[in-house]
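User: Okay, second chain of the day. Same drill as before: sequence in, structure tokens out.
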Amino acid sequence: MKLTKENKYFILFAALLVLNACSHISEREMAIGKWRFVEVSIRDTPIFPIIETDFMDLNADSTFHYEITEAKKTMDGTWEYREHALVLNYNKPDTTRVFPIEILSKFDLIFNENEKHFVLKRSQ
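Assistant: Same drill. Structure tokens below.
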């Protein structure tokens, strides 16, 4: 069987597709990065204004840091991803909070705590 130019391109495309399908990123790895807050609300009502510089860093070394200016919140500690939840272990105050994750994608992170709804977008 003689390979035509079109067949070669098809085989190359198919091989790349298979290789791409085989690459898997864990949910924890997907959560790592710099996120900017879009909204923090209760029943679709914002709790406080969010400004462009409000952010959350989830670092590969399992540390986190976030700042929400209008809420006067600057917090840090360690984090883990456990059973579709973001677990934040705060340094001060010494407490742990569990946030069930509603959406985690390459671009979006949405999680909840009781009635509070947190919407974040990955920073570019």
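The mean pLDDT is 89.

User: Thanks, on to the next one.
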